[in-house]
Predict the structure.
Amino acid sequence: MKIKFLKILTCILLVSFAFIPEVHAVDSSNIAVTVTIAKQIAGVSIRLSPKNRRARPGQIANLRATVRNEGNGDDSFKLTASSSLGWSVEFPQGDIIGPIRPERREGIPIRVIIPSDAKRGDRDKVTITATSRFDPSVSVSAFSTITAR
């Protein structure tokens, strides 16, 4: 009876050691570990909608910019605006969007104020640029045309 007990105990111990990850009796010459360290790369795309908008002088033309993080790490983006006719362009929620996770997008409203002295048919090209805060050398622009009616 004593011998059977020892054999069972030995088997249980061997099975237990085979499945416990903390066991340190491992032949390390057969283990290969590869570590890849990826450098973060910035990337961005932007879509502005609508592409064409009409509004009366003294009114506000509402646009929406959709910024997509094309990089491989979280990033925030600084938005800037230019107007070919010098019309006022505002970012009601601020000019920083994000952080945005890779391959995700976020939208932000934009307001273009048509001056009260604008003439019917005046066309303003509004350009919105998104610049990576991780790597300011990475930026992209989109434009929309606002016409006074």
